[in-house]
């Protein structure tokens, strides 16, 4: 779309999620090219030139697009397995299967994961992919290709593992890389795919998997590599009690102190889960501006516990939301995490004061943009920011008696997505993806899931 062509969305409620939480009961948004040009209360200006399209959004809430900050796409083809396991037993049960994945499987799984998120309001997605079996093909390229075809903004957290069963880790020996191989492949992925520009559609982060699947040297050299290349860092942290025990037994310290000793705290770092954090851990994250990807459904599915999100936010820790892998969150949707983040955190120490609906929406939008390092570009609706936004339909039976649109979106039934835009380009129309064939993806993912199951019998 040429920069001077405009799309006008009007007659809608708007939650901007800007610093003042500005909202309009009835307002408009003007998109010019890939940017938000203007927005406000009432009707759009009548004298706009080069208006390509006007959308009457009566009955809709417009929000920033949702930002997913933690996922494992390959798990789409192992959904519904080990459903009554905790994290460690779940990993032990599934690693032998995951170690058999190849490029066609990963591509199909990425298509399925991305499609499910995009049709549910996600405009910026990420994937933490860390399983690279020998001879499996170009797995990173397959994931990036699927994201490009779907039309979402994307961060690949290029993961790695070098601590296998023979070294006291969990993955099978043939499913891990060497230290040198992991670092070399990660640098090559950054060199080939990372785009540092303002409106970048593809970025890459350095992302060794977790303390119990990578060596100390891979963490340390991975951090050095990321900072030399100018990209972000991502890993799993403090997910379970067992992880804390593992770190104390092996390294003589808890996960947060261990991460700090290897260079893994800082404003360029975000970690998934962070369930078992004490006051000192939270203070360290706040001091260093280390981000957190909160994954409430997965944490519940694997009985990991309740993350102290209200305390993190009060301390100034950047927090976003994550779907996590679809073998521990079978729905694969981020908009359900808005509701689950609010409800599950109210079971914690703060009870009804833990989170409210607007805080939950902020976690899923601006908070996610913060932890991905893109808050100046996306995550709120403001003039000059990229036009990543969603139109949620709230005038059906499901939300008819809820007066407040943000409450309806967060606490009500899953709201239909009438339209979703990334860089001003529409990717969803009436709940269906515009640029990929959902039915073909469903067939492909079923076939690849069957093929993987046959390989592991």
The count of strands amounts to: 17
What is the mean predicted local confidence, pLDDT? 96
Let me know the largest β-sheet. Answer: 9 strands, mixed
Radius of gyration: 21 Å
Distance from first to last alpha carbon: 50 Å
Shape: globular
Estimated share of beta-strand residues: 15-25%
Number of helices: 14
Fraction of residues in helices? Answer: 25-40%
Secondary-structure topology with pairs:
Layout: E1 6-15, E2 23-32, E3 35-41, E4 51-56, E5 60-64, E6 66-67, H1 87-98, H2 103-118, E7 122-129, H3 139-150, E8 153-160, H4 179-193, E9 202-208, H5 216-229, E10 233-237, H6 241-251, H7 255-261, E11 269-273, H8 279-288, E12 291-294, H9 296-301, H10 309-315, E13 319-321, H11 335-345, H12 357-371, E14 389-393, H13 405-411, E15 417-422, E16 425-429, E17 432-433, H14 438-455
Parallel strand pairs: 1-4, 1-5, 6-7, 7-8, 8-9, 10-11, 11-12, 12-13
Antiparallel strand pairs: 1-2, 2-3, 5-14, 14-15, 15-16, 16-17
Helix pairs in contact: 2-3, 2-14, 4-5, 11-12, 12-13
Polypeptide structure, described:
With 457 residues, this protein is of the alpha/beta class. Helix content is 35%, strand content 21%. It contains 14 helices and 17 strands. Strands 1, 2, 3, 4, 5, 14, 15, 16 and 17 form a nine-stranded mixed beta sheet that branches. It has a four-stranded parallel beta sheet with strand order 6-7-8-9. A four-stranded parallel beta sheet has the order 10-11-12-13. Strand 15 (417-422) and strand 16 (425-429) form a beta hairpin. Helix 2 (103-118) packs across helix 14, helix 4 runs parallel beside helix 5 (216-229) and helix 11 (335-345) packs across helix 12. It is globular and about 70 Å long. The chain starts with 5 loop residues before the first strand and ends with a helix. The model has no long low-confidence stretch (mean pLDDT 96).
């Amino acid at each position: 779309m040429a920069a001077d062509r405009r799309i006008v969305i009007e007659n809608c409620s708007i939650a901007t999620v800007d610093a003042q939480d500005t909202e309009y009961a009835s307002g408009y948004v003007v998109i010019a090219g890939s940017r938000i040009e203007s927005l406000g209360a009432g009707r759009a200006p009548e004298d706009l030139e080069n208006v390509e399209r006007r959308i009457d959004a009566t009955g809709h809430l417009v929000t920033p697009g949702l930002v997913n900050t933690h996922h494992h796409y390959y798990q789409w083809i192992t959904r519904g397995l080990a459903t009554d396991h905790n994290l460690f037993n779940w990993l032990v049960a599934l690693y032998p299967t995951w170690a058999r994945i190849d490029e066609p499987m990963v591509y199909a799984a990425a298509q399925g994961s991305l499609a499910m998120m995009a049709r549910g309001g996600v405009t910026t997605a990420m994937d933490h992919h860390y399983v690279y079996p020998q001879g499996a093909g170009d797995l990173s390229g397959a994931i990036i290709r699927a994201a490009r075809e779907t039309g979402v903004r994307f961060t690949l957290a290029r993961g790695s593992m070098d601590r296998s069963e023979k070294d006291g880790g969990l993955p099978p020996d043939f499913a891990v890389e060497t230290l040198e191989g992991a670092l070399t492949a990660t640098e090559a992925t950054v060199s080939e795919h990372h785009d540092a520009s303002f409106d970048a559609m593809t970025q890459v982060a350095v992302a060794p998997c977790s303390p119990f699947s990578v060596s100390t040297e891979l963490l340390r050299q991975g951090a050095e590599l990321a900072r030399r290349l100018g990209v972000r860092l991502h890993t799993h942290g403090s997910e379970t009690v067992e992880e804390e025990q593992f770190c104390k037994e092996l390294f003589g310290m808890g996960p947060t102190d261990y991460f700090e000793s290897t260079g893994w705290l800082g404003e360029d770092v975000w970690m998934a889960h962070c369930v078992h954090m004490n006051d000192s851990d939270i203070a360290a994250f706040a001091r260093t501006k280390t981000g957190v990807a909160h994954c409430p459904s997965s944490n519940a599915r694997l009985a990991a516990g309740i993350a102290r999100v209200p305390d993190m936010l009060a301390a100034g820790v950047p927090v976003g939301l994550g779907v996590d892998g679809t073998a521990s969150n079978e729905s694969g949707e981020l908009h359900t995490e808005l509701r689950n983040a609010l409800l599950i955190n109210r079971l914690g120490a703060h009870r009804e004061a833990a989170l409210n609906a607007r805080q939950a929406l902020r976690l899923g939008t601006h908070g996610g943009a913060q932890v991905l390092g893109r808050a100046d570009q996306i995550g709120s609706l403001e003039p000059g920011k990229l036009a990543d936004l969603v139109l949620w339909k709230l005038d059906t039976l499901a939300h008819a008696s809820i007066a407040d649109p943000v409450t309806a979106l967060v606490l009500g039934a899953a709201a239909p997505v009438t339209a979703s835009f990334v860089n001003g380009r529409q990717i969803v129309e009436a709940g269906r993806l515009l640029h990929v064939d959902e039915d073909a993806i469903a067939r492909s993912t079923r076939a690849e899931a069957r093929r993987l199951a046959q390989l592991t019998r």
